[in-house]
Amino acid sequence: MTGNAPMEAHVLDEGDWLAAGEICALCRIELHAMLELAEHGLLAPRLTAEGWQVPAAALPRLRIVARLMRDLGVNASGAVLALELLETQQALERRLAALERLL
Amino acid sequence: MEYRDYYQVLGVERSAAPEAIKSAYRRLARKFHPDVSKEPNAEARFKEVQEAYEVLKDPQKRSAYDQLGSEWKSGESFRPPPDWGSGYEFSGGRRRRAPPGRAAGGEAGAEDFSDFFSSLFGGGSPFAGAASAARDHHARVEIELEEAHRGTTRTFELRRPQPQADGTVTFSTHTVRVSIPAGVTDGQSIRLAGQGELAAGSRPAGDLFLEVHIRPHRLFQLDGRDVTVTFPVAPWEVALGAGVTVPTLGGSVEMQIPAGAQAGQKLRLRGRGLPGHPPGDQYVQLKVVLPPADSAPARALYEEMRSKLAFDPRANWPRSSS
């Protein structure tokens, strides 16, 4: 695919769903682990005639949780807890930086 | 290539028991995990730690590594001995090199290990368990905020493994130019159908996924599609109101500061954030900067304010503490 015309990329947003198999391969986790994470509220998959589907918007958070589980040996609830704490920390850091800019 | 001292990386003795190695790995993995760590070079350190553990946790690999001897120093120029690996399962002429850099850094895995690791233990098969299925690729792409606002293009070099009839593997490079549309937000994924790894046989290729990250900007802070700019103003601009020129991603605009505005107050420029449905807004947060009293006229003005304004900044404090 060389050539001058660039490929148009499709931005995945709220309305997009991915096949569970695809999202599992991207995050390198098993389907049962993904469904367990759904129980923890990390994502809300839906069952269709073609099998499980996952909202594309869940991909970034699911990737982080999958890495934490794989690399640090934490279980699903621990990884989701860590993700939520990380997000809280990032939000606080953003607010702190915003306040510091006013000084 | 350079020798790597895996014991030093994990901070354990050469005689360390498997439990001690596991414990050192767990501790360092937590410390340097790129999703968690604030350490500088966390990602590089984490990969080193992973690579060291990959070798030292496996009795076969560890014993083979130990046979190199303890005379080597980290960073020393290294070449595997000619009889390297004989008697071990991972040995033989199939030292497959890791597939070199996919589109800018995919998921960390065995394929990211060092040349030193690959020369000793092979690159880890990129095809394990995926002989027939097309594979999706995931990569990260960093763009500037201005690029997210107006749209941009990126060129990727994708290297695809091509299994040959004789069992060896070669790599073919192909170039993809991707148009990233205006209004993409931080953390959003974009998908390129059919640009992932080719499947064996005639199955279609998988998809390429790019996770977009927007680099921090010197002036604008991004939150979703909204941007905030901290805007320095003089005390009289907020007190009396003023027309000012404010930078936005789409160029400068004129804005009216209302009389009586307060320090820290946010004014909204509707639709001046990242484009989208609906587009984001720009917030202009007022930062009052006091003029210094560093000249006789300036001091005179401050003294006049002190004498003429009945202004008590601590008026709302409880009586006892003032």
Structural class of chain A: alpha+beta
* CATH architecture classification name of chain A: Orthogonal Bundle
Helical fraction of chain A = 55-70%
**CATH classification class of the largest domain in chain B:** Mainly Alpha
Oligomer: heterodimer
What percentage of the residues of chain A does DSSP assign to strands (E)?
5-15%
Domains of chain A, number: 1
Spell the H/E element sequence of chain A: EEEHHEEHH
Q: Which structural class best describes the helix and strand composition of chain B? A: alpha+beta
What can you see in these coordinates?
The complex is a heterodimer of chains A (103) and B (322). The mean pLDDT of chain A is 89. Chain A is built from four helices and five strands; from the N terminus they run βββααββαα. Chain A has a single domain (17-101), classed as Multidrug-efflux Transporter Regulator, Chain: A, Domain 2. In chain A, α3 packs across α4 (76-101). In chain A, 55% of the residues lie in helices and 15% in strands. With 103 residues, chain A is of the alpha+beta class. Chain A has a three-stranded antiparallel beta sheet with strand order 3-5-4. The radius of gyration of chain A is 17 Å and the shape is globular. Chain B is of the alpha+beta class. Chain B has three domains: 1-126, Orthogonal Bundle (Helix Hairpins); 130-215, HSP40/DNAj peptide-binding domain, CATH 2.60.260; 220-321, HSP40/DNAj peptide-binding domain. Chain B is built from eight helices and eleven strands. Chain B has helices at 6-10, 18-32, 42-56, 59-66, 115-121, 145-150, 235-240, 296-308; strands at residues 137-143, 152-163, 169-180, 189-192, 208-214, 220-223, 226-233, 242-246, 253-257, 266-269, 282-288. In chain B, α2 runs antiparallel to α3. The longest helix of chain B is centred in the N-terminal third of the chain and has 15 residues, at 18-32. Chain B is elongated. The interface between A and B is large, with 34 and 44 residues. β2 (10-11) of chain A pairs antiparallel with β4 (189-192) of chain B, so a sheet runs across the interface.
